Amino acid sequence: MPLTGQVLTFGQVPPDRPALVVKIDNHPLARPQTGLNQADVVFEEIVEGSITRFAAVFHSGNSNPVGPIRSGRTQDVDLLSGLNQPLFAWSGGNPGVTAAIDNSDFISINAVRGGGGYYRTERAAPHDLYNSTDSLYSQASPEAGRPDQLFRYVRPENEVGGENTSWVDVLVGSNPVRWEWAPETGTYRRFQSGSPHMQTDGQVTADNVVILLTGYRPSSVDARSPEAITVGEGYAFVFSDGTMQVGIWKRDENRSPIDLRDPKGRRMLIAPGRTWVELADANANTVETG
After folding, report:
1. Domains of the chain
2. Is residue 170 classed as helix, strand or coil in its secondary structure?
3. CA gap 284, 255 in Å, rounded
4. Is the pTM of this model over 0.90?
5. What is the pLDDT of residue 287?
6. CB 118 within 8 A of CB 130
7. What is the greatest pairwise CA distance in the chain?
8. In degrees rounded to 5, what are phi and psi of residue 70?
């Protein structure tokens, strides 16, 4: 599977469909969310007010329903163009953001510009917008691509390298995030603001956690909106199978995968499975582990 690294058995083929990105709210009034544990990859990015928002990437799995769904940002274009013409489900944006998304190679499924399947719940607006991956995939256009790998994975007979590490704390905007390794399940459990991060089907988990220290700059269309600089390079912390690797991330262009290298230039490989990527501000961050 391209976005999880899962090895296919004889006769299996990956799903013949594009990647689907859903922008999911992380405001306190948006919790618990639905769909984060079903996504292959989740990116956490900083938005206005130093709060965070998620870009949940689906390919091998589904979530019916999924949400709450919120607006896009200009930073999404560089961050997600490596998914090869993904579907992009969002609640809309200001004119500058809308132009940036429309001028990208995303297949936009905009809730305020004709996207189907969106509905409101009893939650307080604007934290009340939902859809389903089935409905969103039914709106895929023929030009949508098929995703390539974003990361490199260990082979089934090999082990992930690195030093044993039980937890990591990282500040993403104003959101204090902790991931704890749970050997009994072979996953990392997510906490934010000192409490378990719960969604509608239980605590948020991941098989891998990748922390990318990135610069942030004001968006070209809204100076109040921070924009992660995800083309270039920076420090990376990679957590997989209860171990930590430290090195550098690099992307030469916005269509490039995320190249993770250790200080000797060797690839940092991760275990097959679901991956969370924390886009932490390199100028305002200390990563603590234990």
Report:
1. 20-137 (3.50.90.10), 163-289 (3.50.90.10)
2. strand
3. 27
4. yes
5. 93
6. yes
7. 53
8. -130, -170
